[in-house]
Design brief:
heterodimer, A: 358 residues, alpha/beta, 9-stranded mixed β-sheet, 14 helices, globular, B: 90 residues, alpha+beta, 3-stranded antiparallel β-sheet, two-stranded antiparallel ribbon, 5 strands, binds S-adenosylmethionine, binds iron/sulfur cluster
Chain lengths: 358, 90
């Protein structure tokens, strides 16, 4: 069996922001029993021993963990490439220096829009200016910087201005990631899914920017799967390359998998390698044996692995069905209906913010 | 393209290390893991910003008994395109 390359450590789901597009689970209170410093350090050690090479520290807002510097130090000492995925709220200069000294390799900051009014509205609190300041500190300390922008109907028309802002921040990489519909984003899908016209306009702008920025800034554009013919190859295959550990110690193939009707696997009860090898959460959809038609006999089954299991479950109630995003899926009408609504006359614009917790 | 006189060096945001689990050298970046074959690992460990592409090829030619010039340039070019290696000219 292959060994995982990356660990997504979701240290906490607490967060000062309230993004309506947030992919965190709806039942945030179920994760209040967070793992201790020692528990996370043990998980990192087990991960490194089983071949994990990258450690993404995310959440929620990882900077709310007061032991973040210690956790980074442990991961770095284990030889893992460490990446902090943050809203940047709480990334003061002194905190940043502590993380740098502890061996943090890379920082990814998320930004909601190109100007304060929209950004602060989407984030739910005034945060735009603080993000820019933090980005400057990251560059000043010599870190490579990725800026992540989640795109949706309420900011995608400003993608040119967003790219210009990120250029000014001197980022090494920009991720323009269309919203994936999990967690709070799923609840807010009707107000977030862009129209076909919006997407086409954005795609042209991003394509031109990529050419213009060659050699200066890497431009990653994640298109919304609702508009594509085939599903995305989720995680390079179920439980093949990555794993996630949630704040309470639940181990998952990806963060969205917490919704699936499979028995929980917890790193508080079992070693990570046992979970990876034999927990139903990990074995249920590994490989292609679980597939039914049309995937079972499809030429693309090793390319996209039948798409996303979590999306199949969310849309059809059965995680073993073909991802309805696929035009060959018998359930594809579910996706077409959402797309039609996003392109219709009457649109739903009200966003339900993810509640902030601290 | 990469020229013989170029001086390649690992870019500051990637790390080269040996991975005992896979028994290979790996190149780690924020969103990528590149598992290297032994020749690739050798090439990268010689890319110190002082040695030229031709210089790297010369060292390898001594180590292995075969011509490697094009292989070095092509390998370096691929990693430059992925922003894992930077070129210092002249
Ligand atoms: C859940 S956040 C946690 C880290 C931190 N609070 C932040 O927002 O940067 C992890 C990353 O996923 C992105 N993200 C959040 N919700 C998303 C969604 N529905 N689809 C795609 N990306 C999303 C964020 O922008 C961020 O880069
Ligand atoms: S609410 Fe926003 S900042 Fe907070 S975890 Fe979710 S995406 Fe990140
Ligand atoms: S039928 Fe299944 S394997 Fe074939 S393209 Fe669609 S999702 Fe992929």
């Amino acid at each position: 069996m292959d060994r995982p390359f990356g660990l997504l450590a979701e240290l906490t789901y607490r967060c000062p922001l309230a993004c309506a597009y947030c992919s965190n689970p709806l039942e945030l209170a179920a994760y209040d029993d967070e793992m201790s410093t020692a528990e996370w350090q043990r998980v990192f050690t087990e991960a490194a021993e089983m071949g994990v090479l990258q450690c993404h520290l995310s959440g929620g807002e990882p900077l709310l963990r007061r032991d973040l510097v210690d956790l980074v130090r442990t991961a770095a000492e284990l030889g893992m490439y460490t990446n902090l995925v943050t809203s940047a709220i709480g990334l003061s200069r002194s905190r940043a220096e502590g993380l740098r000294e502890a061996g943090l390799d890379h920082v990814q900051i998320s930004v909601q829009a190109d100007e304060p009014a929209t950004s602060d509205r989407i984030a739910g609190i005034p945060s735009f200016e603080r993000k820019l300041k933090a980005a400057a500190v990251v560059k000043d300390l010599g870190w490579p910087l990725t800026v992540n922008v989640v795109l949706h109907r309420q900011n995608i028309d400003r993608v040119a201005e967003i790219i210009a802002l990120v250029e000014e921040l001197d980022a090494d990489r920009i991720e323009l990631a269309n919203t994936q519909y999990y967690g709070w984003a799923w609840r807010n899908r009707a107000a977030l899914l862009p129209s076909r016209e919006q997407l086409a306009a954005a795609e042209e702008i991003v394509r031109a920017a990529r050419v213009r920025l060659t050699g200066r800034m890497e431009v990653v554009h994640v298109l919304p799967d609702y508009y594509s013919e085939y599903p995305k190859p989720c995680m390079g295959g179920w439980a093949a390359r990555q794993l996630t550990v949630a704040p309470n110690g639940h181990a998952l193939p990806c963060p969205a998998a917490q919704t699936l009707p499979l028995p929980r696997a917890s790193v508080r009860e079992e070693p990570l390698s046992t979970i990876w090898d034999s927990a139903p959460m990990f074995t249920a959809f590994r490989g292609t044996d679980w597939m039914r038609d049309p995937c079972r006999t499809c030429d693309r089954r090793e390319l996209d692995f039948g798409g996303c299991r979590c999306q199949a479950f969310q849309l059809t109630g059965d995680p073993a069905r073909t991802d309805p995003v696929c035009h060959l899926s018998p359930d594809h009408a579910l996706v077409t209906a959402a797309v039609d609504a996003a392109n219709g006359e009457r649109r739903h614009e009200i966003l339900i913010p993810r509640p902030h917790r601290s | 393209m990469v020229a013989d006189g170029d001086r390649p060096i690992l870019s500051s945001h990637v790390r080269l290390r040996f991975d005992p689990t896979r028994d290979r050298h790996v190149l780690l970046g924020p969103e990528s893991v590149i598992v290297l074959n032994p020749t690739g690992a050798d090439i990268l460990s010689l890319c110190d910003g002082n040695r030229t592409v031709a210089g790297v090829a010369a060292v390898l030619r001594e180590r292995y008994d075969r011509v490697v010039d094009d292989e070095v340039a092509a390998f370096v070019a691929r990693l430059v395109a992925r922003r894992c290696v930077e070129i210092h000219n002249g």
